[in-house]
Write a structure and sequence with these properties.
alpha/beta, Spore Coat Polysaccharide Biosynthesis Protein SpsA, Chain A, 10 strands, 8-stranded mixed beta sheet
């Protein structure tokens, strides 16, 4: 097996948040690709009915293991973010579609000056083995709409592989995870909600090339039409909030370079951050 990226003690502490729901068979693959020197792994369970919880505790005995307060991916992430103690927070999926071995590239972008490192399947070096033509079309249309309304240059709005410095949580304004009543943002729309609210902030964003892998076991709970409409609603609602608040174009995110996997720029960032890439 190829050696995986790892971090040195001089790096910021990295917390990895993984929402899980019946992913017992997939978690060993995620663990095998995880850099060995992350500060903590936070597994947030959505009340799985298989052996997910036990498997997660076996794989990460020193990790933080939570049961989410409500239901939905958004709520799981909010619970995980609240428990994170690292300087940098990384959000990945438990189905093996997001590769933990790419984490150093995201961390490198943050250390190089970005506040928020946004994964993209559609920049040079990125790609997907999973996306369907319908999902790709919808993602492209929604990305174009956000770019037009918020003045951004996002190439991939609906991708859940992101990393950020802890201070970026203020801009996200996530639903209160301590409340029992369901809230807007609890579902799959969470990724778009985060990206749009970052877009309305004055944070620096870097797009990092990422390759989306096939889910190894099980089926996704994503509904393309239903969740696509929820994302559209989020975009329009958030734009209305921005207009009402009178936020100018100067309040929109500063887009930094787009990093492609394996590039000399990525290697330079790896040297700046102090972690190993081989």
């Amino acid at each position: 097996m190829d050696s995986l990226p790892s971090f040195t003690p001089s790096c910021p502490r990295v917390s990895v948040v993984i929402p899980v729901l019946n992913e017992e068979r997939n978690l060993p693959y995620v663990a095998a690709r995880m850099p060995g020197d992350v500060h903590e792994v936070i597994v947030v369970d959505g009340r799985s009915v298989d052996g997910t919880v036990q498997k997660a505790r076996e794989l990460w005995p020193n990790g933080i293991h939570l049961t989410q307060s409500r239901s939905g991916k958004g709520n799981a992430l909010a619970c995980g973010f609240a428990a994170a103690t690292g300087d940098i927070v990384v959000m990945i999926d438990a189905d093996c579609s997001t590769d933990p071995a790419e984490i150093p590239a995201f961390v490198g972008a943050l250390i190089a000056g970005a506040d928020f490192a946004k994964g993209s399947r559609f920049v040079l070096g990125g790609g997907s083995a999973d996306i369907t033509p319908l999902r790709k079309f919808g993602n492209g249309a929604l990305s174009a709409l956000v770019n037009a309304l918020f003045g951004t240059k996002y190439s991939d709005l609906c991708y859940g592989y992101n990393a950020f410095w802890r201070h970026s949580l203020d801009a996200m304004r996530l639903p209160d995870h301590t409340q029992s009543a369901s809230a807007w943002g609890d579902g799959f729309e969470i990724e778009a909600l985060i990206n749009v609210r970052i877009a309305a902030s004055n944070l620096t964003v870097a797009e990092v090339a990422s390759f989306e892998r096939d889910r190894i076991h099980g089926q996704s709970n994503l509904n393309v039409v239903r969740d696509g409409l929820r994302i559209l609603k989020i975009v329009l609602q958030e734009y209305a909030v921005v207009r009402k608040a009178g936020i100018s174009r100067d309040g929109r995110p500063r887009m930094t370079i787009r990093l492609r996997s394996g590039s000399s720029e990525r290697a330079r960032l790896a040297g700046v951050s102090g972690f190993k890439t081989s």
